[in-house]
UniProtKB/TrEMBL annotation:
InterPro entries: DctM, TRAP_DctM. Pfam families: DctM (PF06808). GO terms for cellular component: plasma membrane. Keywords: Cell inner membrane, Cell membrane, Membrane, Transmembrane, Transmembrane helix, Transport. NCBIfam families: dctM. It is a multi-pass membrane protein. Its main location: membrane. Part of the tripartite ATP-independent periplasmic (TRAP) transport system. It is found in: Cell inner membrane. This is TRAP transporter large permease protein. GO terms for molecular function: transmembrane transporter activity. The complex comprises the extracytoplasmic solute receptor protein and the two transmembrane proteins.
Amino acid sequence: MSVELLTLLFFGCLLLFVLLGSPLAFVLGGVSVVFLYYEMGAIGFYLLASKMWETMQSPTLMAIPLFVYMAILLEKSGVANDLYDMMHQWWGGLRGGLAIGTVLICVIFAAMSGISGAAVVTMGTIALPKMLERGYDKKLALGAINAGGGWGILIPPSILMVLYSLLTEVSVGRLFAAGIGPGLTLFVLVSIYIGVRCWLQPELGPALPKEERTGWGPKLRSLRAVILPILIVTIVLGAIFGGFATPTEAAAIGVFGALVATMINGQLSWKVTHETAVATLRLTALVMWILFAAHAFSAAYTALGAQSLISNLMEFIPGGRWGALLFMLLVLFLFGMVLDPVGIMLITLPVFLPVVREAGFDPIWFGILFIIMMEVGYMTPPFGFNLFYLKGVAPPDVTMGDIYASVIPYVLVTLLGVLLMILFPGIVLFIPELFYG
């Protein structure tokens, strides 16, 4: 059977079972194993087991449950309430200030958690009702939370970056460092958008009345709220970039910091610890199945010879290597509308990475573009996860249509950020080169 026909059959089976509603990890792993056996026989199973054993011995893998535990614990710690009170006092007097303060909290939360949903759920619960009470435009407020929440997978530490590192064998430390510049760039772009929009249309984000604004004394006292988050972020990232700890060791330090923060805020209890541990166990088990599926897919895809087929097809895309990059980003954008980011990673990376290397692109630089497109996937209809997270915690009068419409300008701003990173790769690569040479 020709490689073209095998490829069509392979992806056709994947699409069929996904549309039938089967879990993607099981579909990808199961179909891949069947095709691997067809192409290589029983030796394919030994190859797959050997690769999985090698992955399970990777110390980087331990960072995943630790970062997940830290993120869930911080979500329950009450840190976000203190942060929002501080932002309310410092930014509330500006037009659109509450929305800008909210996305700044999302930056801080992203640097503490490593997942997307934590900031969306937390800010949707705390910040959204208060912004709506102050007369903020519904779509402006919803979009700000949606966009800011997605930075959890971009600003280090990031669970998705750890997975990308495991699947592509690039340095997770370099990848973490590369996410800082783009994360801050997107924060600045989104803040400028909110500020300019509210300056031109003051009714969208009215400033707090003068009688409700606080003086310098309460403002300075409120800064105590950032001490614990900044301390956790500094310890975790400082240990990694300073060469004092591996990402796994830094994750363990972060867990300890999250436990201390939860205890200081009076939220540490047996119930919270138990719920956090169970949630972490579930997510970690899911990740293990995902890794199994990833290796099965990679082995089957290589055995079928489809990578060379895709590489040859890429040569027919106009525009050379930049045309190929644009095509890959377009595929990621379209996939993001209907698949979860981990599934997209499993399906596309074995195909895209040989093309990226052949085109001479830096895998770290491409990895950041990949992560940002996954972030866009979190916030785009019809199946963006952040949309449903936000709907779950939003007031009853917020419709799904409101949430869908709110993301359009923020997606455009994020894509503008991607364009800047393509034109100026130093935004991505400056900090990795600074720390790692």
